[in-house]
Amino acid sequence: MEQQLMMRAAIFSIAAGLHFACGSSCPVSSTKTPEPAVPTGPSTSATVSSDAAHSPSVPPTYDTLIWSDEFDQPQLDPAKWQHETGTGVDFYPFMDGWGNDELQYFSPDNTSIENGMLVITAKYTETPIEGKHYTSSKIVTKTKFDFKYGRIEARIKLPQGDPGIWPAFWMMGANVGKAPERVPWAQCGEIDIMEMGGKTPERVGCSMHFGGWPKNTYRTKSTRITPGEFHIYRLDWSESEIRGYVDNRLYHTFPIDTDLKREAFRHPFYLLLNLSIGGKYAHSGDPVPENYQNGISLLVDWVRVYQ
Questions:
Q1: What is this structure's pTM?
Q2: Tell me: the pLDDT tens digits for 51-102?
Q3: Of the listed ranges 23-32, 36-45, 170-179, 261-270, the one predicted with least confidence
Q4: What stretches of the chain show up as alpha helix (H) in DSSP?
Q5: According to a count of CB atoms within 10 Å of the terminal CB, is the N or C end of the chain lower?
Q6: Domains, the chain, ranges and CATH?
């Protein structure tokens, strides 16, 4: 994700299975029925890749639904998701703040299913939990579901207005972990389908991270949205390129067939959803408001994967 601390990649190489925390639109349907296919910081040492000479190819059409969650059960489906909890130190002592200066304690208690939607709520608490005055949730499909190539979509309504929030819908290489059996971040690859920093609720970003430590590389673009509304965040991922969309409007094309480092995007990934508080992407050093007693929520109508 954008503006990651250098510590993030270094610790990722030690801690197995640890993951962080990103024009006119087509109509956004609220239907729960899957539809047929339509034809979200680098560390300070990172480099931005250049793709100026790349000519985008015609992407494949992915129209077979292979996995979805419509959030139509009374609670989160344990066959599809699991929680990552805590502050990061349970994975490794130096990971407080998930290696990214985040201010929340991730708890399953902040996840619910309401009116056929996933709700992740961030809250302020007077009594800190493991030193954190904020609680929220992160859910992942790690060990439950991973895949290589396809179309990934989610219909999401983002929270608004506060500089400290950092919602994200993203993917991590399933081979992330401790060497030599697994590979460190960012060699494993990271794809941020959508992330939003609270200071700019009218913009969302789509990013890819790859390479290694200390010279990890990223490629990112952002686009405007209408805050406070549901939008469909989509990623088309093929063996040659990755394309980012909002409401079926293409705004980011990233080739993965021009650099050996981009082999990171040629193996299975799993999905993540979270609402973080703090972190450089969220507020760039501004104070985080202590006004979340009533909660601020990320709403997810559905998540679908096609091949």
A1: 0.82
A2: 444 445 677 889 999 999 999 999 999 999 999 999 888 776 677 888 788 8
A3: 36-45
A4: 6-12, 280-283
A5: C
A6: 6-21+60-306 (2.60.120.200)
Strand pairing of 269-277 and 138-140?
antiparallel
Which residue among 153, 195, 202, 239 is the active-site one? Answer: 195
Cβ contacts of 275 within 8 Å, gap of 6 or more: 120, 121, 122, 136, 137, 159, 165, 166, 167, 168, 296, 297, 298
For residue 127, count CB atoms less than 10 angstroms from its CB and return exposed for 0-12, middle for 13-18, buried for 19 or more.
Answer: exposed
- For residue range 94-143, what is the model confidence (pLDDT) as tens digits? 778 887 888 899 999 999 999 999 999 999 888 999 999 899 999 999 99
Q: Of 190, 202, 241, 290, which residue is the catalytic one?
A: 190
Residue 190 falls in the annotated catalytic set: yes
Q: Provide the token pair at 122.
A: 């961030």
Is residue 84 part of the annotated active site? The answer reads: no
